[in-house]
Amino acid sequence: EIVMTQSPATLSVSPGERATLSCRASQSVNTNLAWYQQKPGQAPRLVIYGASTRATGIPARFSGSGSGTEFTLTISSLQSEDSAVYYCQQYNTWPRTFGQGTNVEI
Amino acid sequence: EVQLVESGGGLIQPGKSLRLSCAASGFTFSSYVLSWVRQAPGKGLEWVSAIDGGGISAYYADSVRGRFTLSRDNSKDTLYLQMNSLRADDAAIYYCAKVRTGGNWYDAFDIWGRGTMVTVSS
Question: Which of A41, A88, A92, B122 could bridge across to A23 with cysteines, CB 3.0–4.6 Å?
């Protein structure tokens, strides 16, 4: 099983600042990596797929990068509505696995 | 509008069985791999199972293999998760999720339902 490790666990930032979230895979997942946003009481929402492609309706301030085992989600100029838990997920091998999440507080 | 709606959750005793359903609309149901993902209270996301569009092949997490069975009825645009021998650690919100592109196992989940809560307690 591929273990996905996210850091930091919690990120406290001010509106307008930049947030950088990291995700590391225990073995290569190529670019089969997604990022999801989850707000309290809601289902997860796809933000990034293919490591770097924004999903439909996702603002341009969200960007993803990386390949292999190291990945980054960057949120430039944070807005209040970006406060959420962000999960990375690999879909390269079975079982699909998620990171433990990064809580972004604004 | 593309939509997934889960149902069938509830309070169930340990060792008993429960069947979850996920009704789909707004897309060609039989073309897409579907999965169940669960989330225990206050915890992260855990992938449970996935099935191909034809209902022929399925994959399971080790934690549920042998106890859970995933199936689909493409004539009813509905996905099912039969859960047997339920344990306390199966308690979670169960989400149904669709992959982004048809016929593709290796893709992200672009549409999620709102989830159905399963509570396992005596």
Answer: A88
* B60 CA: distance to closest CA in chain A (Å): 7
Token pair of B95 as six digits: 């989400």
Structure tokens of A75?
């949120």
CB contact at 8 A, B108 and A40: no
Cis peptide before A95 (omega within 30 of 0): yes
Q: For residue range A19-77, what is the model confidence (pLDDT) as tens digits?
A: 999 999 999 999 999 999 999 999 999 999 999 999 999 999 999 999 999 999 999 99
Q: Which residues have C-beta within 8 Å of that of residue B77, sequence separation ≥ 6?
A: B23, B24, B25, B29
Which of A14, A7, A13 is CA-nearest to residue A87? A7
What are the phi and psi torsion angles at B87 (to 5°)?
-120, 165
